[in-house]
Design goal:
- The protein is mainly α and 98 residues long.
- It has one domain.
- The longest helix has 30 residues.
- The N and C termini lie far apart (66 Å).
Length: 98
């Protein structure tokens, strides 16, 4: 892919001609490209994790994905890793709520 197209798609420039030097060579801010690549990687990481979690559930032939071979292992691994507990709990009653 041409560098101007990469820059346009990643939001660096509105049009390819703005990247040209008088002699026609590309004007590249490599530090900005590296920073933008880091941002894209950080955004992609959670999506990749979700995708990897959804694939086994989609392919599972058990009546419920909770009964499949992968879910219990991941649940156990999350518990060992100290994943937060997102179950609903009633609000705590403070001194004013008594």
């Amino acid at each position: 892919m041409h560098i101007a197209e990469v820059a346009r798609r990643t939001g660096f420039v509105a049009s390819a001609p703005s990247m040209r030097l008088p002699r026609g060579g590309p004007k590249i801010d490599r530090a900005s490209f590296g920073a933008r690549a880091d941002t894209i990687d950080a955004q992609a990481r959670p999506l990749r994790t979700m995708s990897r979690g959804l694939r086994p559930a989609a392919a599972c032939t058990a009546p419920s994905h909770r009964r499949g071979p992968v879910f219990p292992r991941r649940l156990e691994a999350a518990a060992k890793a100290g994943a937060p507990d997102h179950r609903w709990r009633p609000p705590a009653r403070g001194p004013a709520g008594r």
